[in-house]
Amino acid sequence: MSRLSYSLRALWMGVFNRRAFNKLRWKFGLEPLHYWSEWPLKGGIAAKWQDSEQCTSRVLVGVFGDQDHVLEATRECREAGFMIHDVYVPYAVHGLDEAMGLRRSRLTWVTFIMGALAGAFALFGQYYTQAIDWPINVGGKDPWHIHAYVPVTFEFVVLIGGLSTMLALFIRSKLYPGKKAKLCVEGTTDDKFALALAQRCTGFDHERARALFAKHHVERVMDLGDTP
Amino acid sequence: MSHSVESELREPLVTGDKTLHDITEAACAPMERKPNGLWWAAFLVALSCLGVGFATVSYQVATGIGTWGLNKTVGWAFDITNFVFWVGIGHAGTLISAVLFLFRQKWRTSINRSAEAMTIFAVICAAIFPLIHMGRPWLAFWTAPYPNFRGPLWVNFRSPLLWDVFAISTYFTISAVFWYIGLIPDLATARDRAKGIRKKIYGIMSFGWNGSARIWSRYETAYMLFAGLATPLVVSVHTIVSMDFATSVIPGWHTTIFPPYFVIGAIFSGFAMVMTLLIIMRKVVNFEEYITINHLENMAKVIMVTGSIVGLAYATEFFMAWYSGSEYEGFTFINRATGPFAWAYWIMVSCNVITPQLMWFKKLRRNVWVLFILSIFVNIGMWFERFVIVVTSLHRDFMPSSWTYYTPTMIEFLTLLGSFGLFFTCFLLFCRVLPMLAFGEIKGVMRTGKHKHDEHKHAAKAHKPATAKAHEHEKEVAHV
Q: Which of A54, B27, B81, B138 has the CB geometry, 3.0–4.6 Å to B439, for a possible disulfide?
């Protein structure tokens, strides 16, 4: 039963993607929905944001000097209901994705699907060239002898699987050669850890956020007008 | 509160009680300062070797393969030896970065970057030899199965030589991708420290990396995937190289032990080359606190284990030659150990089987000089292993009237020298312009084994001024 409900939920989240829907709403100048249940309240009527200046992509950034501090701060801020815009860290901090509530990356699917396609293509290609298009008798060997085609198929799977993983990573993360880096604060590629909280809508509790930052030994707090 | 999951009893991977910034400083220093005289001297020597190699290769291509010492009986000798040797060297990088990553061996972080670079350069060196052997290297693209106007005439997918084309090119591509993906965060660090033209170049190369944890999360998944892909790849590549021999019907080559024997030999020789280079590098650029004696000891252990397996493979080959009852197989092996090439065989055995056994002693394992000499011996021994396999299996064939001896010409020696020149030129340039330490990864493991009470002390020290500064700053940046 739980499996069924889980699949239904996945279907629901896929079809009724709130984030995508909010993007659309944003275009029409509508306030984003935090829950679908808010829809009737916030309405389809053009409820233009009253205080658009406060509700921009403003972030509150806390700069930390230690991975444990930023990890705990992230966890507590998320538990307190703040939206984590992003965390900027000089190295992959173990456990940070759980603290941020990130879901597992779906890059594995790209690798799997592209690898499977590449394998099918390589096998078919070898079959076509060796057995159909121009069969040649090499030492009396069978033109279609699958054992001989395993190495090339395997190499091709790895090649295409690897290259498509790389491309998927770059495309999904919007990384490309020559892209200008937008740093949140100086030093996040050296020894600083920056936690950026999104101040999306009205009701961002500055006092509470700063208190949480201070509890976890924040070094600097910055109120940035534009998201990095 | 700490999230370190490692035992406190472990020795720290990075010694000298470093901060994160210290690691950045140390790792970026070789890229930021002017090269010293030692570097220039090494570079000039390497470059002249490369020049010699370039000249000899041009001569060979212009004149033909007749410039080699091959004859009717020994039709395959120096070039394939060098090819297998370099491919073998190229195995350690991916092994260190992928296999040790999957096994959660965190000590790999200090050595993986330079080992991966070494892999790429070694594979380039390896690829040169079949290209020269083609005679007309400008037609090398004929090995690709593309629809052409010659029929289309397809390549023969049942030939291990073609498998090699696929294996080596895939291995090169995936290793290069793996290496570059690993470089991006470190290049971003270099970019944020650099000025002027260097900032621009590192800026282009670092793909706009800003340390976002959302990207890091994906990056980690991709890195794991690359490790998962590269691990079977590294095994497959040398398996396929061994099949160049094993799928033939020559006694001495036609054995089922070849794939594992070649793979383990590749790891053995690759680790030896990594050790040779790192022992020099850690001294020259002062990385002794990052590439510690513990790292070298771990590598020595790998060399000892793989060396023992290689020794076992030699013994198994002999046993099978006798046990199979095949006269020809038996003759080949007796001839290897006692025939005209016995000198090469015994160099191989003493370098590859006997010297690694010294590593059972902890004293020797932790002595840098011993390790350096050992690694050189293993490099020599592993080159001779390939030479022995190739030449001694061929030079006395089924017909005694065609028995012969093989002597390489000066051209062949100089080509080998040239390949070393290419390798070291590339490696020295790499040391100058790219981060030699994967410091993004080292920062992640530097807490391994640190004593907890130390950490608390550090934390307490760090907090006091920090909070005071934070208050000040809060007032400053109330609004941006």
A: B27
**What does the pLDDT look like over A180-218, one tens digit per residue?**
878 878 888 888 888 888 776 666 777 888 888 888 888
Identify the three-state secondary structure at position A88: strand
Q: Chains A and B: how many Cβ contacts under 8 Å?
A: 250
Cα angle A116, A119, A125; round to 5: 140
CB A174 within 8 A of CB A36: no
- Predicted confidence at residue A86, as pLDDT, reads 84
In chain B, where the domains are located: 20-449
Confidence of residue A56 (pLDDT cuts 50, 70, 90): low
pLDDT in the model for residue B262: 92
Q: Do A111 and B469 touch (CB under 8 A)?
A: no
Does B145 contact A90 at a Cβ distance shorter than 8 Å? no
Pairing mode of beta strands A220-224, A59-64: antiparallel
Segments of chain B with pLDDT less than 70: 1-11, 16, 447-480
Give the pLDDT confidence of A26-49 residue by residue, as tens digits.
777 777 777 666 665 554 433 344
Cβ neighbours of residue B424 closer than 8 Å, sequence gap 6 or more = B42, B45, B46, B49
Amino acid identity of residue A122, one-letter, is: A
State how far the Cα of A95 lies from the Cα of A67, in Å rounded to an integer: 10
The residue extents of the domains of chain A are 1-48, 107-172
Chain A, 122 to 151: residues with Cβ < 8 Å from chain B are: 125-126, 129-130, 133-134, 136, 138, 141, 145, 148-149, 151
Query: If pLDDT is split at 50, 70 and 90, which confidence band does A226 have?
Result: low
CATH class (in words) of the domain with range B20-449: mainly alpha
> How far is CA B21 from each of CA A124, B206, B434, rounded to the nearest angstrom?
53, 20, 18
- The ipTM of this complex is 0.86
* Helices B258-284 and B368-387, axial angle in degrees (round to 10): 140
The A residues from 151 to 170 touching B (CB cutoff 8 Å) are 151-152, 154-156, 158-159, 161-163, 165-166, 168-170
pLDDT-derived band of residue A13, with 50, 70 and 90 as boundaries?
low
